[in-house]
Inverse folding.
């Protein structure tokens, strides 16, 4: 695998070199494949792109660790554009993958330390200005870049696209393993890399059905691998942090990024659009026109090169609705104001409704679900095809369904909806899945947001208060549509714990009325 990756890199570099001669006065770039010594002495396979025809430097340095399972060729298209415009670029395969040595340690300290080793190498072997460094990556490279900015004060800009700030919240949201995402990551890691001891232990437990043990291990590994844990160190180092993600990201969902963004006290940008994992940014990585990369490059030009391009004056939160409209806000708290509806036995209403109970059978699926990881969100983002459901076909024996009033005007839902209710399970372990739909007059619903939650070790027959924050969104509900809330107990995307033959009862006690709070932008 490592020889194949090196050969591919060399072939691409040769292709990039083909073309008419470049005059010395014209901006261009030179490419080279290098082996760089990483932390612990392992060898890292890197593509190095150096500006030509732009003087002798020094040039701001952009270090780009690759995504999970992707080689150093990932960013060569964007890297070529950056190098041609005056940035020294090093795109490398992350530790354990493709042509880089070592084992996959799931963004452990050695992987993070590799970023600093690449910067050290650049200082000695390229015309880079290592006092002006950007760490930029997608997915695994994004998480690595954030973590590296906590350890290396030379990093002045971070571009973290489709990444994570809290690893466990991403892959085990509310104690519900994101099954399709985890299985896909493990498979890709084994195909394209060399699992290290941590990954080997986790996947052995996962594949042998010891899910609780695997989750326990992941929770132990997560803190040192989560930027949320080291946000104080990031703030102390003062990099300018650019975060971008997709609303429907099925690996690293967006809400864990909003909490991290709010905790940052450095120059910061948060940019969300619809799509699945990495779909808003991948076209730009290969060099195609791309909104996210355009904004990130302007961010780098300002905070690395001092360009007076207005990147620091734009509103720090930028959200793109499913209708394609970008809107800016001063903070995450400002994106929408809560509008509360109360749950009755079957509907959503403006006044409190208490004293009701509604029971459903658990352990069997309904037609409502969150879609297929990496597919459904991509369809929404790229083709505006939502994850849909015919709400009249949802079996009320297996799901709670609450229908709201028709909106007389177009309404923008902006932010994270919140659901509060009381659940009484008949067994110790039960998974619940909440879905919020935009429903037209025919009863056809488009999924706006969702969230899983698993009750573990509950006392059968004892009421449990639930406070559930759904994933962030920016969704324009057309006039004449209404919202429908669905809560059931099975979703094929997740490793649920509901069992056939069990049940769960929803209720709204007088001291804690059930409600749905939806953030609405004015």
């Amino acid at each position: 695998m490592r020889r194949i990756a090196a050969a591919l890199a060399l072939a691409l570099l040769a292709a990039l070199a083909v073309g008419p001669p470049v005059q010395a006065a014209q901006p261009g770039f030179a490419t080279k494949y290098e082996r760089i010594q990483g932390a612990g002495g392992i060898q890292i396979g890197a593509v190095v792109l150096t500006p030509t025809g732009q003087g002798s430097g020094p040039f701001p340095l952009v270090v780009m660790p690759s995504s999970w399972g992707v080689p150093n060729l990932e960013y060569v298209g964007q890297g070529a554009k950056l190098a041609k415009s005056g940035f020294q670029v090093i795109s490398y395969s992350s530790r354990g993958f493709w042509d880089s040595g070592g084992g996959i340690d799931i963004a452990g300290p050695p992987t993070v330390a590799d970023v600093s080793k690449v910067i050290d190498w650049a200082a000695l072997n390229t015309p880079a200005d290592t006092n002006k460094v950007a760490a930029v990556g997608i997915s695994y490279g994004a998480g690595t870049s954030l973590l590296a900015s906590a350890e290396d004060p030379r990093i002045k800009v971070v571009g973290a696209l489709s990444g994570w700030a809290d690893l466990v919240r991403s892959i085990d949201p509310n104690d519900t393993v994101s099954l399709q995402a985890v299985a896909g990551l493990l498979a890709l890691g084994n195909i394209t890399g060399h699992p290290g001891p941590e990954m080997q232990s986790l996947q052995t437990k996962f594949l042998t059905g010891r899910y609780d043990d695997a989750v326990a291990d992941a929770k132990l590994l997560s803190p040192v691998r989560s930027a949320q844990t080291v946000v104080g160190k990031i703030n102390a180092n003062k990099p300018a942090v650019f975060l971008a993600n997709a609303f429907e990201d099925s690996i690293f969902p967006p809400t864990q990024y909003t909490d991290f963004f709010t905790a940052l006290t450095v120059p910061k940008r948060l940019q969300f659009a619809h799509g699945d994992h990495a779909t808003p940014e991948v076209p730009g990585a290969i060099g195609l026109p791309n909104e996210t990369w355009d904004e990130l490059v302007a961010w780098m030009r300002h905070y690395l090169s001092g360009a007076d391009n207005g990147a620091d004056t734009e509103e720090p939160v930028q959200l793109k609705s499913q209708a394609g409209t970008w809107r800016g806000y001063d903070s995450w708290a400002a994106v929408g104001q809560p509008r509360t509806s109360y749950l009755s036995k079957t509907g959503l209403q403006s006044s409190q409704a208490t004293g009701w109970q509604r029971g459903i059978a658990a352990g069997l699926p309904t037609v409502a679900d969150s879609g297929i990881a990496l597919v459904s969100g991509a369809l929404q983002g790229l083709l505006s095809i939502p994850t849909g459901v015919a709400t009249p076909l949802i079996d009320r024996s297996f799901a709670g369904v609450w229908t709201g009033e028709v909106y007389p005007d177009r309404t923008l839902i902006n932010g994270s909806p919140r659901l509060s209710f009381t659940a009484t399970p008949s067994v110790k372990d039960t998974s619940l899945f909440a879905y919020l739909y935009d429903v037209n007059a025919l009863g056809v619903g488009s999924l706006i947001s969702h969230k899983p939650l698993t009750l573990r070790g509950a006392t059968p027959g004892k009421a449990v208060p639930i406070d559930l924050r759904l994933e962030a969104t920016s969704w324009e509900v057309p006039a004449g549509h209404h919202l429908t809330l669905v809560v059931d107990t099975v979703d094929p995307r997740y490793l649920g714990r509901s069992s056939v033959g069990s049940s769960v009862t929803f209720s709204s006690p007088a001291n804690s009325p059930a409600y749905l709070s939806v953030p609405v932008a004015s």
Remarks:
- The first strand starts at residue 28 and ends at 37.
- Residues 17-24 have pLDDT under 50 and may be disordered.
- The radius of gyration is 24 Å.
- The first helix runs from residue 2 to 17.
